[in-house]
Amino acid sequence: MKVGYIQTSPFFGDKKRNFKEIEKLTAKLRADLIVLPELFATGYTFISKKEAESLSEGLDGQTAQFLKDLSKKASATIVGGFIEKDKDKIFNSAMIISGSELLGVYRKLHLYYKEKLWFVPGDKPLKIYEINGIKIGIMICFDWFFPETARTLTLLGADIIAHPANLVLPYCQKAIITRCLENRVYAVTANRIGRETRGEDNFKFTGESQITSYDGKVLSSAPSDKASIDLVEIDIEKVRDKKLNEFNDIIYDRRKDYYLS
Ligand code: ACM
User: Fold this and answer.
1) Ligand 1 atom nearest to 165, measured from its CA
2) Which residue in 66, 135, 159, 161 has its CB near the most CB atoms, within 10 A?
3) Strands across the sheet containing 101-107
4) Which ligand 1 atom sits closest to the C-alpha of 142?
5) Whole-angstrom Cα distance, residue 81 to residue 37?
6) What is the pLDDT of residues 29-47, one digit of tens each?
7) Sequence ranges of the domains in the chain
8) 32: closest CA among 122, 156, 159, 157?
9) How far is the CA of 198 from the centre of ligand 1 (A)?
10) How deeply is 53 buried, as exposed, middle or buried, from its count of CB atoms within 10 A (0-12, 13-18, 19+)?
11) Which superfamily, per CATH, for 2-258?
């Protein structure tokens, strides 16, 4: 199975231009799973809730349409971030699209910094999407900081974690190696690059999108300063065996009676 990321440098608030940039990068793309960054169409650093609301969409908005077209063109399952509007609430969400159909939406559970001023925290359980026998889980950016997220996706059966991100801290690319090792799953972290100076905030996004293997190997790492795209071939059968050796199974060996929840 071929999986990959698209690493972009979004123009704040300019969805059409951001879609065009991705179209240029993906002209000849063919894959099984492609992950795009968190909020890839809008940018990240809002100065008010009103501004974030003005860029939000329902499930039939322009971002859903763009991702459906991309899914068709690349014959791929696509996961990408957007601002989801649901009645009077907005969420930092990611949609999963396959065969030009919207399969579902994940709402970020762990909001970072001022995201707490703009968005409502995710209110839906973590979920696995099974496509052609491959089990895909989704988490968004700062969710990685909470090991329970990747562990829950693993316990639900995830083979691979699609991880749209707008990383501003320097830890994830190393830490996700541990998340993958301790759960024996693959992860595709699609990050963004560039800087956004808006209001009082000045964020430099770290790039280095990464495909990480269940055994801790980094299979692909993007530059920190260039829009890019990469695909790797992975063997999903490997993650279905949770044994490290003939004595240790990382799921069965857990001592749940001794842990706090
Ligand atoms: C982040 O969660 N976008 C830092």
Assistant:
1) 3
2) 161
3) 101-107, 89-98, 77-86, 33-35, 2-7, 228-233
4) 2
5) 6
6) 999 999 999 999 999 999 9
7) 2-258
8) 159
9) 16
10) middle
11) Carbon-nitrogen hydrolase (3.60.110.10)
- Measured from the Cβ of residue 246, the count of other Cβ atoms closer than 10 Å reads 6
What whole-number percentage of the chain has pLDDT above 70?
100
User: At which residue do the structure tokens 């000849």 appear?
Assistant: 28
Which are the catalytic amino acids? Answer: 38, 108, 141
Q: What is the CB neighbour count within 10 angstroms for residue 172?
A: 23
Centre of ligand 1 to C-alpha 144, Å, is: 10
pLDDT higher than 90, residue 113: yes
List pocket residues of ligand 1, CB cut-off 6 Å. 38, 112, 141-142, 166-168
pLDDT per position as a tens digit, 45-103: 999 999 999 999 999 999 999 999 999 999 999 999 999 999 999 999 999 999 989 99
Question: Of all atoms in ligand 1, which is nearest to the CA of residue 112?
Answer: 2
Q: Whole-prediction pTM value?
A: 0.98
